[in-house]
Design brief:
The structure is a single chain. The protein is an alpha+beta fold. It has a domain of 39 residues. The protein is 19% helix and 20% strand. It contains one helix and five strands; from the N terminus they run αβββββ. The strands form two sheets. The protein has a three-stranded antiparallel β-sheet with strand order 2-3-4, with no helix packed on it. The longest helix has 13 residues.
């Protein structure tokens, strides 16, 4: 398998990936959101947890399992 084909498969899988649920890395709460509406295009993403007050660029993402897996 050539390198170009490997990259094509990686990008195809990324493109068709469903959005993953985001969780706070500190307390595990799903109530984490972007700190500002400008974070996703103007500034680096920063998240804030409504439960424990965590602020930072790191979140946990969990994909839902499908029947294929």
């Amino acid at each position: 398998m050539g390198k170009l084909q490997i990259f094509r498969e990686i990008f195809t899988n990324l493109k068709h990936r469903k959005p993953a649920k985001k969780y706070c890395p500190k307390c595990g709460d799903p109530g984490i959101r972007l700190l500002s509406r400008f974070n996703f295009w103007l500034l680096p993403e920063r998240y804030v947890c409504e439960r424990c007050g965590y602020q930072g660029p790191i979140v946990l993402e969990m994909e839902e399992e499908t029947e294929e897996e």
